[in-house]
Design brief:
The complex is a heterodimer of chains A (about 775) and B (about 425).
Chain A: E1 2-7, E2 10-15, H1 41-55, H2 81-97, E3 99-100, E4 103-104, H3 105-110, H4 127-139, E5 163-165, H5 168-180, H6 186-207, H7 211-225, H8 240-243, H9 261-292, H10 299-302, E6 306-308, H11 310-316, H12 319-322, E7 336-338, H13 368-373, H14 383-394, H15 408-414, H16 418-421, H17 423-438, E8 464-465, E9 468-469, H18 478-488, H19 490-505, H20 521-544, H21 549-557, H22 560-563, E10 564-567, H23 574-579, H24 591-602, H25 611-616, H26 634-656, H27 679-697, H28 706-723, H29 748-760, H30 763-766
Antiparallel strand pairs in A: 1-2, 3-4, 5-10, 6-7, 8-9
Helix pairs in contact in A: 1-4, 5-6, 7-9, 7-19, 14-17, 19-20, 19-21, 20-21, 26-29, 27-28, 28-29
Chain B: E1 30-36, E2 64-66, E3 69-71, H1 84-91, E4 96-102, H2 108-117, H3 128-136, E5 144-146, E6 159-160, H4 165-171, H5 188-207, H6 212-227, H7 246-259, E7 265-270, H8 279-304, E8 310-316, E9 319-320, E10 332-333, E11 335-341, E12 349-351, E13 353-354, E14 360-361, H9 380-391, H10 397-401
Parallel strand pairs in B: 1-7, 1-8, 4-12, 5-6, 5-7
Antiparallel strand pairs in B: 2-3, 4-11, 8-11, 9-10, 13-14
Helix pairs in contact in B: 5-6, 7-8
Classes of the chains: A mainly alpha (about 775), B alpha/beta (about 425).
Chain lengths: ~775, ~425
């Protein structure tokens, strides 16, 4: 039971006797029933709700208020986050204790009553104001400590308390299907049976070396970077300016050895298609190369090479130079690393300055495909690229939660250069524009590389990163300069760990909750913090493993977040439910994943989840459609029904036509065996069903379980009902026997097919 | 939908899940939200200026009017699509225009989110189209159709992306071999037992304690599969010819779905309005294309007999500056306009305004009259609150789950006439 606290028209609830903050005389701020009750009000309340949200944007190194007396540290950017918070607390306490006009400067500044260029950031009468006021009261209390928590921390149940985890065998199945698109082998199951969780990690060492994993890796990172989706023909990534002589090599390629004109034309089409696919694949192949060879994942930004194939090398005009490095020069998709020479063009602007004579590669960041995917315009000035850089490599989405500007139109009209002069604009542009300026030489609006004709813009913050200006002599390698600093930033490792989480779960890590007046704020904050704690822990391991990304995959797989599978007891408390809202993988399989799962279970893909049908089933095209569907629509439900019908149709009779020892699905029963004839046959039918539950659904159901009983009833019910009906054909449906004679006088094959259809429509099959 | 067993909505207070259908077709109203993605130039449509160089293609004296509307003359400047002249002639009497909407921001991403949901600083809020779909037709198999732009669902309803008309045809008869209505994979009684067993499974799972994600996924999946059967109704409404125009293609998919009673709302979008270079050339191509899309929807809806159930909202994530840049383009401007048309909306009206410099003029929310001093600058949350009222969903638990917060005194009174 909770009591309602009326707070400016909103009702918040807290458990009896647990009014948070009341011991410090704070206002009404709600906590959920099971939320952590640490007594450190600064860490739990003031910092996340006010400091991080309202003050840090400007009051930091590189921020608009970096020269003020109130400079804070961003814990996310510090290796020692606790020390940063400690310093921030001290700054808050100092500001709270500094009085002016008999009032604390902290309150006066925040409410815009003193000279505060950021103007009013906290409204009197809001929960944020109450928090600050409470903090000031506590900080100015005689004898109050300046740095230590005011109260000892109270214990809270562990975050995963009451959450059931999958067993190690199921975990193994989940991981191998997800990462390699296959079921575990018997030997791998045996390893796990013997060594438990450690055995899972041992098996993963092998799984993470398989080609299937690298397919998944490329697919997963493309979901993030979307480099497959740049605009225009693939070969246009190689700009006309620099590659006009070579990028259309396939049009002149000698195919005269193919005598038949039609065949020659088709070969030409294939040549062009393979060339384009090779170019499109280069960025994600770079990621594969880094991970496959256990290189530090910092190479995603610092690699001084790109990946090319015999075909794309021709486009760059370097094939003859490097052809000996290919094992098979005829393979359009054999990728090898290549360091491009500095670009040349037709006029001075297009000649690339380079102290080394090579293109200043900065991993993915300087690939033509990445730059083309996030192009610039004369008004955008590379800001899209800067925004994506922050999002992709530092986990900061500059725009998604942009602060409300009081009157953007008025600001635009008032200032000559709003992005440099108006505090509301500067707050983001001071961070964003220096990075945009680092891309200044990648400004050919049709291609990629090229200096701006009129010189770089003066009316924007100049090249730099997080408060550090780039020296002019570094300009030729500006992206390398950026990359070197980025990979040293603690946010880089955490962002990469977040990307791995997204690949494994299909969703991005949680964002910190913003609405501090939300009754469920504390629960959402706790969920966020629990996840962040895991991200930090895994990031530390990633760094310790010299940024070997496989470490992040393995650590996530054995984490509570990936293993969470259910509840030990029902939960009804809204706070606890909010805490658990994002817990558990429970991921609707993508079209690609679903096809791989069908392949793993039946030996061949369904083959229809591609192109339009894949989009209809929630897939992406990396261009217009860039977010995968997370919930099935009715249209997707229809596709699931088609899939289950067709896959069952293809595999049921076909399996029975094989020798029992060669069957995947029905090795224990014969087609003519009907239920209810003998306990022995019923037993084998039940064992078959239990095996199907395990194989298709990953469920360990015993033969006498309710689950298997339900499947048995379906099978037996259909057979029985068929027996009582007239006019039933005595053979399998024409569509599901594929030209062969498949007698089915007792309707058992069709009943098995129906049972298979039922199982393929289950969540355990369609979700991860 | 006989023989499907219990199909009760699985929604619980504070939680969200799919709802399985009783088989009844949704009969309207239908909601079509048109998005001019990239930021349209409202001064070339419903908020013409013609002064201070705001419009190079016409002067103030050239501005046209029809009833209460004033609009920019475009007939002489367009090569295709529908001119403003023709659009207002056809629909001016039904059209409600709001000018002087203050988006507060002038970036695409937050602007699109704000305009679509009425909430700037949250990624969790559903678009109006998604919200009304969840409230009005959770049982519809493709309750919320989207063709792009900001499309968040708030986890209330699944979004459907149907790229081409033939894709609908292909999935309409999911239990038939290759969609052939005469060829079934399973005999009727076997299929019935499959469905019954799935329903029994769904009920059994509901008894077990589950993580919120698992509970929601099970409910959404079950509803999706059960409700998908209603897609059979779509086939008869799919036209034999697919139109060539971008918006018309989206419109046909939406109309077939509306007419079949399987869809509540559609988010229709065309892009490239971001005319930083050569503003007039781009806008004179895109605005007529956009208006032609609306016209196509209304004309085809008339033919299908559902025009009187169609609510249209036409919007963009921002406007464009009152001045041209050096590239003859116009940059982002945080003031814009919205068009409304449909049942419950009294037309031939213009609410709000911008001044000669294209700044929003505040209004009195009670009288809707301009009130430069002491009035309220109308923002997307005000408009969305009115939209929720129009749709009759303001009191729905889903709407309450995503409150639009502003002082009660700022509520627009009599907005729809």
């Amino acid at each position: 039971m909770g009591r309602a606290c009326k707070h400016r028209g909103r009702a918040h609830y807290w458990p009896m006797g647990l009014r948070p903050g009341s011991f410090l005389g704070f206002g009404c701020v709600a906590l959920g029933l099971t939320t952590t009750l640490r007594a450190d009000v600064f860490l739990d309340e003031v910092w996340p709700k006010v400091g991080a949200q309202k003050c840090l944007k400007c009051h930091k190194l590189g921020g608009d208020a970096e020269e003020s007396a109130f400079v804070l540290l961003d814990p996310a950017k510090e290796i020692d986050a606790a020390a940063a918070l400690k310093q921030n607390r001290a700054a808050f306490v100092k500001m709270a204790r500094t009085a002016e006009k008999d009032q604390s400067q902290l309150l006066l500044k925040a409410t815009g009553q003193l000279d505060h260029e950021g103007e009013k950031v906290v409204e009197p009468g809001t929960a944020a104001f109450d928090l600050l006021a409470g903090f000031v009261k506590e900080s100015t209390r005689p004898g109050a400590p300046a740095t230590a928590p005011a109260q000892p921390a109270a214990a809270a149940p562990p975050f995963f308390s009451g959450v059931a985890m999958v067993d190690d065998a199921t975990l193994l199945r989940r991981a191998t299907l997800s990462l390699a698109g296959r079921l575990p082998t018997d030997a791998e199951f045996a390893t796990v049976a013997k060594a438990g969780r450690e055995g899972v990690l041992q098996v993963l060492d092998g799984v993470l070396r398989e080609d299937g994993f690298y397919d998944r890796l490329r697919e997963g990172f493309n979901d993030i970077f979307l480099t497959l989706g740049f605009d225009g023909g693939a070969e246009t990534a190689l700009s006309y300016t620099h590659f006009s002589e070579t990028r259309l090599w396939y049009q002149k390629h000698d195919l005269s050895h193919i005598k038949d004109e039609d065949e020659r034309r088709k070969a030409g089409y294939k040549l062009a298609a393979d060339y384009r696919a090779a170019i499109l694949g280069e960025p994600m192949k770079l990621i594969e190369h880094i991970v496959r060879h256990d290189h530090p994942f910092t190479d995603i930004l610092t690699a001084d090479y790109i990946m090319v194939t015999p075909y794309s090398a021709r486009g760059y005009g370097v094939y003859e130079e490097i052809k000996d490095r290919f094992k098979n020069p005829e393979d359009p998709f054999e990728y090898v690393p290549l360091q491009l020479k500095a670009l040349t063009g037709r006029d001075k602007r297009q000649y690339q300055e380079s102290a080394t004579g090579f293109y200043p590669h900065a991993g993915l960041l300087s690939t033509f495909q990445y730059l083309r995917r996030y192009p610039t315009t004369e008004t955008n000035r590379n800001r899209l690229r800067a925004r994506m850089f922050y999002q992709h490599f530092l986990g900061v989405d500059v725009l998604e939660l942009a602060a409300r500007v009081t009157d953007a139109a008025a600001v635009t009209a008032k200032y000559e250069i709003p992005t440099m002069q108006a505090a509301e604009c500067v707050v983001c542009h001071r961070t964003l524009d220096p990075v945009a300026s680092l891309f200044q030489d990648y400004y050919d609006l049709e291609g990629v590389y090229g200096r701006r004709k009129d010189g770089w813009f003066k009316d924007m913050f100049q090249a730099g990163f997080e408060g550090e200006d780039m020296a002019p002599e570094e300009r030729w390698r500006s992206l390398q300069w950026l990359a070197e600093r980025t990979v040293r930033d603690p946010r880089f490792a955490r962002t990469m760990v977040g990307h791995v989480y997204a690949i494994l779960t299909g969703r991005k890590p949680l964002l910190p909750p913003k609405d501090i007046e939300d009754a469920l704020y504390p629960a959402r904050r706790r969920a966020y913090e629990a996840q962040q704690e895991a991200i930090r822990r895994i990031a530390d391991k990633l760094v310790a493993a010299d940024f070997n990304l496989k470490t992040a995959f393995k650590e996530w797989v054995v984490s509570d977040f990936y293993r969470a599978d259910g509840l030990t007891t029902a939960v009804s408390d809204p706070g606890r439910l909010a805490e658990l809202e994002d817990v558990g993988v429970v991921r609707l399989l993508s079209p690609e994943q679903l096809e791989r799962k069908v392949t793993a279970l039946f030996g061949e893909p369904w083959g229809k989840l591609k192109e339009q049908t894949a989009i209809l089933y929630g897939g992406i095209d990396s261009k217009e459609v860039t977010e995968r569907a997370t919930d099935p629509s009715g249209a997707m439900g229809a596709i699931q029904r088609i899939l289950s019908n067709e896959v069952a149709c293809r595999n049921t009779a076909a399996d029975f036509l094989k020798e029992p020892t060669e069957r995947r699905l029905f090795p224990l029963v014969e087609a003519g065996e009907t239920p209810g004839v003998s306990p022995e046959i019923d037993g084998r039918i039940r064992r078959t069903l239990a095996n199907l539950h395990l194989r298709l659904l990953g469920r360990h159901d015993s033969v006498d379980s309710e689950e298997v009983g339900r499947s048995f009833q379906l099978f037996a019910g259909i057979v029985a009902e068929a027996k009582g009906r007239k006019g039933i054909e005595n053979r399998e449906s024409y569509y599901c026997r594929f030209g062969k004679e498949v007698p089915d006088p007792d309707y058992t094959i069709r009943a098995w097919r129906a049972t298979l259809t039922y199982l393929l429509r289950r969540r355990e099959f369609l979700y991860e | 939908m006989a023989g499907l067993g219990v199909a009760a909505p699985a929604w619980l207070p504070g939680r969200v899940a799919g709802a399985a259908s009783s088989g009844t077709a949704y009969e309207g109203p239908y909601y079509a939200v048109f998005n001019a993605s990239g930021g349209w130039d409202t001064t070339y449509l419903m908020d013409p200026k013609g002064i201070d160089g705001i419009n190079r293609l016409f002067q103030q004296g050239d501005i046209l009017s029809r009833g209460s509307h004033r609009f920019a003359p475009t007939a002489k400047h367009i090569a295709g699509g529908l001119s403003n002249e023709d659009f207002y002639k056809e629909y001016g009497s039904e059209l409600l225009v709001f000018n002087g909407l203050d988006y507060a921001v002038n970036n695409h991403s937050p602007g699109a989110r704000y305009m679509a949901t009425g909430k700037l600083d949250s990624l969790a809020y559903p678009t109006f189209a998604a919200l009304v779909a969840a409230c009005r037709g959770p049982e519809c198999p493709i309750s919320y159709l989207t063709f792009g732009n900001y499309s968040a669902t708030g986890n209330l309803v699944a979004m459907s992306r149907v790229p081409y008309l033939p894709s609908l045809q292909r999935i309409a008869n999911a239990d038939n071999v290759e969609g052939n209505p005469r060829s079934f994979y399973h005999d009727e009684f076997a299929l019935r037992r499959i469905e019954e067993t799935l329903a029994a499974e769904d009920r059994a799972l509901a008894m077990d304690p589950r993580l919120p994600r698992a509970e929601r996924a099970q409910s959404m999946l079950y509803a999706a599969q059960v409700n998908s059967k209603a897609l059979q109704r779509v086939t008869e409404h799919i036209p034999k010819e697919t139109p060539k125009e971008r918006l018309s293609q989206q419109v046909e998919i939406a109309l077939a779905s509306f007419k079949a009673g399987v869809c509540v709302s559609a988010n229709l979008t065309i892009g490239q309005f971001d005319s930083h270079a050569n503003n007039d050339t781009d806008q004179m191509k895109l605005i007529p294309e956009f208006l032609a899309g609306i016209h196509y929807l209304l004309r085809r809806a008339e033919e299908l007999g559902i025009r009187d159930k169609l609510v249209i909202v036409a919007q963009s994530e921002m406007g464009r500056t009152p001045t041209y840049n050096k590239g003859n383009g116009k940059d982002h401007w945080s003031i814009g306009s919205v068009l409304f048309l449909g049942p419950g909306i009294r037309g031939n009206r213009v609410i709000g305004a911008t001044d000669d410099k294209q700044f929003a003029v505040p209004i009195d929310p009670g009288s809707l009259a301009l009130k430069a001093e002491g009035g309220v600058k109308i923002k997307p949350e005000h408009v969305h609150a009115a939209l929720r009222d129009l749709a009759g969903i303001a009191g729905h638990p889903f709407a309450k789950q995503f409150p639009l917060v502003f002082p009660e005194a700022e509520k627009l009174i009599g907005f729809w006439g």
